[in-house]
């Protein structure tokens, strides 16, 4: 019985792992700024604090000491898959390719 349960759990775990796709480029330095600004981005997109605007999202990734010297819009455009699906969808909609 334990073997059956373990086998079922292993199959389900493998199926879930295969359906989740990490679209966050690991070789893109600009993505570090996106990842490091997660809390700010989540507050703007999910909580509307402050309201969801391009300017408010840009403020999240344009600050002193960032890893990349790219403009904020280019950072979002190059790193569209570094968050949860609702956040990624909002970023893809507001900062679509082609990237500057």
Task: Please tell me about this protein's structure.
- It contains 6 helices and no strands.
- By secondary structure, it is mainly alpha-helical.
- The chain has one domain (23-94).
- Helix 2 packs across helix 5.
- The radius of gyration is 17 Å and the shape is elongated.
- The protein starts with a helix and ends in a 6-residue tail after the last helix.
- The protein has helices at 2-19, 30-36, 38-45, 54-61, 72-78, 85-94.
User: What percent of the residues sit in helical stretches (DSSP H or I)?
Assistant: 55-70%
Beta strand count: 0
Beta-strand portion reads: under 5%
- What's the pLDDT, averaged over the residues? 85
* Number of structural units classed as domains: 1
Gross morphology: elongated
Q: Give the termini distance in whole angstroms.
A: 57 Å
Low-confidence stretches: none
Order of SSEs = HHHHHH
Specify the number of helices: 6
Structural class: mainly alpha
Largest beta-sheet details:
none
Radius of gyration: 17 Å
């Amino acid at each position: 019985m334990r073997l059956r349960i373990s086998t079922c759990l292993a199959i389900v775990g493998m199926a879930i792992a295969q359906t989740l796709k990490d679209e966050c480029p690991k070789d893109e330095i600009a993505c570090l700024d996106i990842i490091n600004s997660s809390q700010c981005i989540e507050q703007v997109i999910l909580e509307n604090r402050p309201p969801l605007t391009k300017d408010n999202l840009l403020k999240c990734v344009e600050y002193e000491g960032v890893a990349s010297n790219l403009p904020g819009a280019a950072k979002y455009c190059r790193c569209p898959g570094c968050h949860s699906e609702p956040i990624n969808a909002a970023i893809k909609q507001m900062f679509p390719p082609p990237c500057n």
